[in-house]
């Protein structure tokens, strides 16, 4: 991508005013986005993005610059601009590069760039037809397709030199059902760190029918009551609550500044013994998985909470300096336009011993949330509110009528402490996470869990 001699010159220039560490991140990314509505391809966009990010540290000072000018003059200018924010004299010399290699843990069989757009469109049309024909009330179906190939090179003044190819594919299906001036929406968006083989092997009947079923079911839903209830949260994307309200609080970006209730609490009990919370970038071909992070560190499994005890944080290279702790391979960024910081990969609650049937049967009265929607969270406090896409009443240990308009309101760390049953049906859901270093692919996951009490916001008058 760039020659070693040129990268040496750039890293040296970045250290010219007294920095003690410099890094270059070279990215070459290819993307394809397609949207199908009303049975026809509405948009079809392809692009290539190439750029270089340059970072300099001096103690607890960090400076970042980026450029799309990959000429020698352009790169040296960007490195000089970054260096000028550092005051001092050059003391550090580059270590010789040691080229690191690894065996990919996310095998790719079919590069999306090698697949004709017509082949991709055929899968989208199939998904559309399945969802549209689910029920006569389905008025609109939108299918979105995404693939990307990201080639990166990371080198730094400590002698690291490592390259990686990341390939991801995703299909998102949204169905809208209408009846008597009422409109409801269902959504499913599976994705993987995998090539086009993932798309061709998808169980379209399952995903397209589920998106449509959610929308149709909610047409007959009753208004959700408000109050404090035991809440059963199903697997897969149900894990978004703990991703947002707890996961972000375990990232070094917050921990290093004491902007989280989890700071300085290693070894303390923060959850019941049945809760183990993990971030694992090594899960084969999962949407949020990585071979290496965006600082060149190998992916790993980080146990954050083990049997209720806080065991660790997600730490990037810069915040490791602030905290006096080693990087956990958690430095991630959207692209060369962002400096990396600590971020999640595949974060999930580990499976427990209860079956979903047992959890429901042991709940006398409460709310069952099958699919979560979007929400908001204050990362400093963990206070959250999340919309529920599909919910049901639980009465006498059995599922009852569907409910609409449900919102879960609470505090992540406190909700974590109120988990009293954990299922054995671990599942992961694909999503995008936006934070300081941009929007990145992540998985959220959990088995079915029960929280003994959550405030549920419902419909007025109920």
Automatic annotation (TrEMBL):
Q: Which residues form the Metalloprotease TldD/E N-terminal domain?
A: 23-85
Asked if the record carries the keyword Protease, the reply is yes
A GO molecular function held by the record? metallopeptidase activity
Q: Which residues form the Metalloprotease TldD/E central domain?
A: 112-219
Question: Which one Pfam family would you cite for this protein?
Answer: PmbA_TldD_2nd
Cellular-component GO terms for this entry: cytosol
Keywords attached to this Swiss-Prot or TrEMBL record, sorted alphabetically, are: Hydrolase, Metalloprotease, Protease
Gene Ontology biological process terms, A to Z: proteolysis
Per UniProt, residues of the Metalloprotease TldD/E C-terminal domain are: 226-458
Is Hydrolase set as a keyword in this record? Answer: yes
Q: Which family does it belong to?
A: Belongs to the peptidase U62 family.
- Name of the protein in question: Suppressor of the inhibitory activity of the cabon storage regulator (CsrA)
Q: Which organism is it from?
A: Neobacillus massiliamazoniensis
């Amino acid at each position: 991508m760039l020659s070693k001699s040129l990268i040496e010159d750039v890293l040296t220039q970045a250290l010219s005013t007294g920095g003690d560490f410099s890094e270059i991140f070279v990215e070459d990314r290819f993307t394809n986005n397609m949207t199908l509505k009303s049975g026809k391809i509405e948009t079809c966009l392809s692009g290539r993005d190439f750029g270089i990010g340059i970072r300099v540290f001096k103690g607890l000072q960090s400076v970042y610059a980026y450029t799309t000018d990959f000429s020698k003059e352009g790169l040296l200018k960007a490195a000089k601009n970054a260096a000028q924010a550092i005051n001092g004299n050059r003391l550090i010399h580059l270590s010789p590069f040691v080229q690191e290699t690894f065996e990919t843990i996310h095998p790719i069989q079919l590069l999306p760039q090698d697949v004709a757009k017509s082949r991709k469109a055929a899968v989208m049309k199939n998904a559309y037809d399945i969802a549209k024909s689910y029920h006569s009330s389905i008025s609109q179906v939108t299918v979105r397709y995404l693939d990307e190939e990201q080639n990166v090179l990371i080198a730094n003044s400590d002698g690291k030199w490592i390259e990686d190819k990341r390939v991801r594919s995703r299909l998102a299906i949204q169905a809208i059902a209408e009846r008597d001036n009422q409109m409801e929406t269902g959504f499913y968006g599976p994705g993987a760190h995998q090539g086009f083989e993932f798309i061709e092997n998808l169980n379209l009947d399952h995903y397209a029918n589920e998106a449509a079923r959610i929308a149709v079911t909610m047409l007959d839903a009753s208004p959700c009551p408000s109050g404090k209830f035991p809440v059963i949260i199903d697997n897969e994307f149900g894990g978004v609550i703990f991703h947002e309200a707890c996961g972000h609080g375990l990232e070094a970006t917050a921990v290093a500044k004491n902007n989280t209730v989890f700071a300085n609490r290693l070894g303390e009990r923060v959850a019941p013994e049945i809760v183990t919370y993990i971030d694992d970038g090594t899960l084969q071909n999962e949407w949020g998985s990585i071979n290496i992070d965006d600082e060149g560190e190998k992916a790993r499994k980080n146990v954050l909470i083990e049997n209720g005890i806080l065991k660790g944080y997600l730490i990037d290279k810069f915040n490791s300096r602030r905290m006096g702790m080693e990087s956990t391979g958690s430095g991630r960024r959207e692209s060369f336009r962002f400096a990396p910081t600590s971020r999640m990969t595949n974060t999930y609650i580990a499976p427990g011993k209860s079956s979903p049937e047992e959890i429901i049967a042991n709940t006398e009265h409460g709310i069952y949330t099958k699919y979560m929607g979007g929400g908001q969270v204050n990362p400093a406090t963990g206070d959250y509110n999340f919309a529920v896409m599909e919910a049901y009443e639980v009465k006498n240990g059995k599922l009852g009528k569907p409910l609409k308009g449900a919102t879960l309101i609470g505090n992540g760390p406190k909700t974590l402490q109120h988990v009293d049953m954990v299922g054995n049906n671990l599942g992961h859901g694909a999503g995008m996470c936006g934070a300081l270093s941009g929007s990145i692919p992540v998985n959220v996951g959990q088995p079915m869990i029960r929280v003994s009490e959550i405030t549920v916001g419902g419909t007025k008058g109920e």
